[in-house]
Design goal:
The strands form two sheets. The chain has an eight-stranded mixed sheet with strand order 6-7-8-3-9-10-12-11, sandwiched between helices. The protein has a four-stranded antiparallel sheet with strand order 2-1-4-5, covered by helices on one side. It has helices at 44-51, 74-81, 101-111, 118-131, 148-160, 178-195, 206-210, 230-235, 240-247; strands spanning 2-12, 17-28, 33-37, 59-64, 67-68, 84-87, 166-170, 198-203, 215-220, 223-229, 298-299, 305-306. A hairpin with a 4-residue loop joins strand 1 and strand 2. It has nine helices and twelve strands. The protein has a domain at 2-83 and 164-238: P-loop containing nucleotide triphosphate hydrolases (Rossmann fold, 3-Layer(aba) Sandwich), CATH 3.40.50. It is an alpha/beta fold. Helix 4 packs across helix 5 (148-160). The protein binds iron/sulfur cluster (SF4). Residues 239-240, 277, 279-280, 283, 285-287, 290, 295, 308-310 line the site of iron/sulfur cluster (SF4).
Length: 314
């Protein structure tokens, strides 16, 4: 459904260049969820926005349904944009406080000229409200009258309104209480099955993406460190960064304790990233070659790719 090839998003200012996304390639199959994980500032949200063409990428290619959409004009993007939607991290900030829920959802339909008749539009809005588990009377209420979890349900209804095929879920549960997070993840999973949706699910926590993801991509400072099927990646992480992220996740089985790999220091700045492997300043397995040569993303078996000299054939 979606193919990203060597995508770069560099933000240029007078003084410096921020290499937010620095050459990322992957594909997402129809109906699957690719979990995209990494610390704050690693470029994952920027990557999500580039895919939707909310940012104009510096270079690389975005293919959607076998069509190159990288350089399509805003006009040419219009019919395609309907199929590419986003659910934001902060549902409150993304909802207009002066609009009723009915109008917020109806606005998306209006922009794309869907359900033009007033009666069918109202029916569609009611249907969406019930699909995401809200009460029918929500239609005439305002965002401030809802809890965080309910607001996220409204954000989901708005994204679903235009019958998209692909949704970027940009940290959709990070701002919610832990008790509510599972409800929203379950709702997204349920909707995926019912509506045959494809997701890019962005999160900084590996535990959140574990159950919803078919495959997982781990991102570090603008590049992919590792990508592979969810189960394999959790059971046998290859990249030292993935190992460190996973070792920080508590496991329910105390008979299989996992030794904690502590990452030292903060993620370096994308303005002046480390040479060679960008993870070398924090990697417990660092070797002399690591600061000199950037490891390419290399196939490890059928569905697995890792960018680390520990697995390079040369
Ligand atoms: Fe660590 Fe070197 Fe692998 Fe980078 S290439 S993750 S520094 S071992």
């Amino acid at each position: 459904m979606l193919t990203i090839t060597d995508l770069k998003m560099h933000f240029q200012s007078k003084a410096h260049t921020v290499r937010a996304v620095d050459g990322v390639s992957f594909h997402i199959n129809a109906g699957e969820t690719l979990g995209l994980v990494g610390e704050s500032g690693c470029g994952k949200s920027t990557l999500g926005r580039c895919i939707l063409r909310l940012y104009e990428p510096t270079s690389g290619k975005i293919g959607f349904q076998n069509q190159d959409i990288t350089h399509l004009s805003m006009h040419a993007m219009r019919p395609i944009r309907r199929h590419l939607q986003i659910i934001f991290q902060d549902p409150y900030a993304s909802l207009n406080p002066r609009m009723t829920i009915g109008n917020i959802i109806g606005e998306a339909l209006q922009i794309h000229n869907l359900f033009i008749e007033k009666k069918t539009r109202q029916e569609r809005i009611q249907e969406l409200i019930s699909t995401v588990g809200l009460r029918p009377e929500s239609i005439s209420r305002y965002p401030h009258e809802f809890s965080g979890g309910q607001r996220q349900r409204i954000g989901i209804a708005r994204a679903l309104a235009v019958q998209p095929q692909f949704i970027v879920c940009d940290e959709p549960v990070s701002a919610l209480d832990v008790s509510i997070q599972a409800q929203i993840v379950n709702l997204l999973q349920d909707l995926q099955e019912r509506l045959k949706l494809t997701y890019l699910f962005i999160a900084h926590d590996l535990m959140i993406v574990k159950h919803i993801s078919t495959r997982i991509a781990v991102m570090y400072l603008g590049n992919l460190a590792e990508i592979g099927p969810s189960k394999e990646l959790y059971e046998d992480p290859k990249h030292p960064y993935t190992k460190a992220l996973l070792s920080a996740v508590p496991i329910p089985d105390p008979t299989h304790p996992r030794s904690r790999i502590k990452l030292t220091g903060e993620i370096p700045s994308p303005i002046n990233p480390p040479s060679g492997c960008k993870f070398h300043t924090r990697c417990p397995y660092v070797m002399p070659v690591c600061s000199q040569i950037e490891p390419p993303l290399t196939a490890l078996g059928k569905n697995r790719q890792v960018a680390c000299h520990l697995y390079s054939s040369g």
